[in-house]
Amino acid sequence: MSQSGQGAGGGGGGGGGVDISTLSVQQLSALQARLSQELEHLSTSYQRLRAAQARFRDCIKSIQDGVEGKSGGTPLLIPLTTSLYIPGTLAPTSSTGAGASASSGSSSTSSASLLVDVGTGFFVEKTPRDGIKFYERKIDELAKNLADIEKVVTGKSENLRIIEDVLRRKMVEEQPSQFGAGGGTTNPVAAAAVAAGGG
What we know:
This protein is mainly alpha-helical. The chain has helices spanning 6-9, 25-66, 98-104, 128-181, 188-198, and strands at 75-79, 85-89, 114-119, 122-126. It is elongated and about 80 Å long.
């Protein structure tokens, strides 16, 4: 990656970039701080998406282990918070009476149903199989988002490395000029001693 264009833009900005070697130390420092902040934000977002992905996998496992193939009255632990659970029992899988199930001759009334959180506080009733498919789609969507974030982080990390290299060189180059600018007055104590001795 060159030291212009994308490096100065802090991301995939395309053409029209500025050669960062022409920027001052102050400008490079500001750009470095901005990129570092963006990377920190992306890292936080990445961790949150990974945590959401893990929760969806737990939901699938809960359906498979706690609902499918289980009959009513099965004991279970109901989560109130992430660390607080209360004991409970699985409700009967049939939402209608036994008489209705027998008269219909259909197994649909005996199939289990779930309330699936589809986001923003809305719940939709689904069968265990549909619930698993829903969470699998969510996991796949998050996987794509995570891959996109990884690409952005890789690009910004490379840009930050280039900026830090240029900034380091400029600071080293400026140090000799700063010492030389003082001339003979860089040590006022020594200058005063010479003046006193000459008197």
